[in-house]
Amino acid sequence: MLAYYLPLIVLVPILSFITLVIFGKRWGGKSAYVSIAAVLISLGLSIKALIDVLGGLSTKVLFTWASIGSFHITFGFLLDPLSAMMLVVVTLVSALVQIFSMGYMHGDKRYGWFYACLSMFTASMLLLVFAPNYVQMYMAWEGVGVFSYLLIGFWFEKRSASQAAKKAFMVTRVGDLGFAIALILLYVHAGTLDMGKLFAMHFAPALAATISILMFFGAVGKSAQFPLHVWLPDAMEGPTPVSALIHAATMVAAGVYLVARSYPLFEKGPASLEFVAVIGTITAFMAATIALTATDIKKVLAYSTISQLGYMMMGLGVGAFAAGAFHLFTHAFFKALLFLGAGSVIHAVHSQEIFEMGGLWKKMKITSITFIIGGLALAGVPPFAGFWSKDEILLGAYTSGHTVIFWIGILTALLTAFYTFRLIFVVFFGQPRADHHGHAHESPAVMSIPLLILGFFALTAGLLGSPFMHNAFQGFIAPGHEAEAINPLVMGLSVAVALIGITAAWLKYGTQLLPENIIGKNNPVYKLVANKYYMDELYQYVLITPTHVLARFVLKFDQIVVDGIVNGVAKATAAFGSGMKRLQTGYVQNYALFMLVGLIILIIWSFRFLGIH
Amino acid sequence: MNDIITYIIFFGLSAVAIISALAIITRRNLFHAAMFLGLLMLVVAGFYFLLDADLVGIMQVFVYVGGVIVVLLFGIMMTSQMTNVRMVSAIKQKVFTILAVAGFVALLVSVFTKVNLSVSNAAVPKDTTSLVGKLFMTNYILPFEVMSVLLLAALIGAIVIARQEVKQ
Amino acid sequence: MVIPLSWYLIVSAILFGIGLIGVLLRQNAVTILFSVEIMLNAANINLVAFSRYVTPSVISGQMFALFVMAIAASEVAVGLAIVLTIYRNVQSVDIDRINIFKW
Fold first, then answer.
1. Which residues make beta-bridge pairs with A66?
2. A63, β-bridge pairs
3. CA A87 to CA A45: how far, in whole Å?
């Protein structure tokens, strides 16, 4: 049975993009319907694909794109459990986000263009998910990068937005360089970039580890892992629905998806998995600490996203492949929910500063309830989605003997619960802190219904992989990587730290029990964390400033040496010309003299042929 | 004895030719220069006779001495201020010209002395005049006719160029 | 035949060189015309000498000399006409005054 409807999943959003590029300006507010209809069709087909996969289908539809000698570039549609799961997640979140945007972006002057970008982003992401070879994956990888760039800089009139877009594009490009090198190495050593063939081949462990780590650099850039995480918080300059779709649920998960998809390759070089685990752990912990001090609602969520992506990498790195993919799945829902909830809040109060909010519980019931559901899922409280997947990852780290990583993971879970509920208590409870709350009101239905749907998934998605369902999800995604048996110690510990974190946040922000400033604003640790470990400053002084110095040097070199050579050639020619013009005396006799000299030279030269010496 | 006379004639002609040629290019007075040119033409005619080229020699006397020189003299006399022109060019032109010409002549002389020219001892035709006449009407008929056209063109051209513009 | 061929050639080369100096150095257009005549005659001597020494029975060299003479005659006619025209226009035959080709 061949699934020829698969290309349609990608083609329909592309058609929507083309239509909106042409007619988006004229249609204005009606553009949304085209895009939403397209993504709903994709969603329907994706669900059909998922059902087919559940029925045992695993297929690959291939087209040859270009043939250069013996080198064939193909593109195709790989359908297996992992891609089917991603298809549904991407199209579902995309559909909900696009519906949400109808309310959020209402009245924007580039409404049509916004939906065109969302459509094409969705298509690129689906193409990435479908990729059966690395060429297509790389192409789609760059495609999502481009549309992420366009959407972050959607309000490009704002200088900070265009700067953030550039930063996101360039920082991820650093990682992509590693990915590109990995692909070149793969092609040189294996002669193919088809995943199926590559995973069946034998590689020396060192070579496989090198390639995998280089490939992981691409994931580091895309999934905002340490040390290339700096772009994601800035990317919050984009519209909030974009943050929900691209920078929470889908694109940043592409890095995780790449590692998950290439897992057989990583397994051939086990050192690379250790590397992935260490980077993931560092990222998870560091981002969680920064999130503690962030005061911008979207920045808190951005650092939380980085931290959760770190968790996924940690899970993949310690060998809990299914747990990593599971966390990717659950995180997509609850983080999209949190971002959309934040968008709803921002839409209501026109501010992003959490200490200017407060008491929104009374005014925005649906937003508050769904946001708290998302928060509980993120904090890892059972039975919400995040608990089951996070617990799986921690369990994986514990059983595989990565003790340090396990304890850091537990600590990060504590921090996660704390900063999540700090956000919730500050934003939704207590007294309003600024006067603009008088007009705060619940968002329209197009915004609240997606919240409810996502809330439902945040509540239930985790159950798919829970022991109550016999770990159905893990068995589906990774038949070779069955979930570990329940470990009461790990589970208990993870529940305990989540509750401790929530309680601490309640004590600090929900009541007046704790003093105002336990840690002073001038505490060096606080300063270090609040300044994001000075990573941006480090890049500024280590990379950007020297680059500017080098650029200025190159400019001077160009102006003095290169231009000097060019101008020198011109000047030499002019000088030669003005020197030679003196030969043009205008006197016929001079010219005749030169003719005579020429004649003499010719005669002497002709001696060789006449045989005279 | 005959040889010696031939030598004397040759060297005499050569000496007169070179001296008169030098005189032509150094005389400031154009009338004198024209006279020396006539002398040179006569000497060259002498060379032709020495080389058994009777008709060419006679033609040299007729055409050059009798025609060209007379035309030149008319021309000189028609233009009052043509004489007494500044004679000397720029010193640089002078030095380089003399060097170049000396080099050129030396080159030619060295070639003429070094190259072994194959000299034929075949008999010289007794009557070159009738032979030239025959050749003009046979082998050289085309150049002969072209020459007549050229002379006509030169005749008309010279008149057109030199004609005084009649002012209305 | 007592006089070697090369002697004629040398004499003609010297005459040619003198004519050349005249052409290259004299300012007077008429003198230049004279010098050209010297050069033509030098060339003619060559032609006739070669004809006499190398191909005595075939007098093609003499034929060429005759053609050269005819050309020389027409050249003098045209050249003198040009000199007269220049003289009428610029009241001089100093070729330094006729230098519109100068840079």
1. A73
2. A75
3. 9
| B120 within domain boundaries | yes
User: B40 pLDDT band (50/70/90 cuts)?
Assistant: very high
Q: Concatenated DSSP letters for B91-140?
A: HHHHHHHHHHHHHHHHHHHHHHHHS------PPPPS-HHHHHHHHHHTTT
Q: Where does residue A479 rank: exposed (0-12), middle (13-18), buried (19+ CB within 10 A)?
A: exposed
Looking at residue A202, the DSSP 8-state letter turns out to be -
* Mean pLDDT of the region A372-388: 83
Q: Which residues of B touch C44 (CB under 8 A)?
A: 44, 56, 60
- Across the range A55-80, mean pLDDT stands at 78
**Helix (H) or strand (E) segment spanning residue B70:** helix B69-78
Question: In a 3-state reduction of DSSP, which class is residue A77?
Answer: strand
Mutate which of C23, C27, C37 to test chain B, going by most B C-beta atoms within 10 A?
C37
Is a pLDDT exceeding 50 seen at residue A160?
A: yes
Note the pLDDT tens digit of each residue in A462-504.
Answer: 777 776 666 667 777 766 655 566 677 778 888 888 888 888 8
Give the structural domain span for B117: 3-162
Whose CA is closest to A7, among A105, A85, A110, A76? Answer: A76
Q: Tell me whether residues A599 and B104 touch, CB distance under 8 A.
A: yes
Contact B104 A589 (CB under 8 A): no
**CA separation for the pair A393, A383 (Å, rounded):** 16
Categorise residue A78: left if φ over 0, alpha if ψ from -120 to 50, beta otherwise.
beta
- The answer to whether C90 and C97 have CB atoms below 8 angstroms apart is yes
Contact present, C93 and B82 (Cβ < 8 Å): yes
Per the CB < 8 Å rule, is A587 touching C102? yes
Q: Which helix (H) or strand (E) holds A75?
A: strand A71-79
ipTM: 0.86
Any residues with CB less than 8 A from the CB of A174 and at least 6 apart, and which?
Answer: A217, A221, A228
Backbone angles phi, psi at A84, to 5 degrees: -65, -40
Q: Is residue B121 part of a domain?
A: yes
CB-CB contact of A261 with A194 (8 Å): no
- pLDDT at residue B87 in the model: 47
Is there a domain that residue B92 lies in?
yes
Asked if B157 lies within 8 A of C78 by C-beta distance, the reply is: yes
Q: Which residue has the tokens 């002012």?
A: B167
A596 and B114 within 8 Å at the Cβ level: the answer is: no
CA-CA distance, A294 to A420, in Å (whole number)?
A: 11
- In the numeric block, the tokens 């998960």 are attached to A253
Q: Which helix (H) or strand (E) holds A61?
A: strand A59-68
Contact status of B158 with chain C (Cβ, < 8 Å)? yes
**Structure tokens belonging to residue B51:** 């080389």
CATH number assigned to the domain comprising residue B113: 1.20.120.1200
Q: Which of A590, A596, A612 sits opposite B104 (nearest CB)?
A: A596
Q: Can you tell me the distance from the alpha carbon of A437 to that of A440, in angstroms, rounded to the nearest whole number?
A: 5
Number of structural domains, chain B?
A: 1
Binning chain B into helix, strand and coil, the percentages to the nearest 5 are: 75, 0, 25
Answer whether residue B167 is part of any domain: no
Ranges of beta strands (E only) in A504-595 are: none
Rg of the Cα trace of chain B?
21
User: Residues A316, A273: contact at Cβ < 8 Å?
Assistant: yes
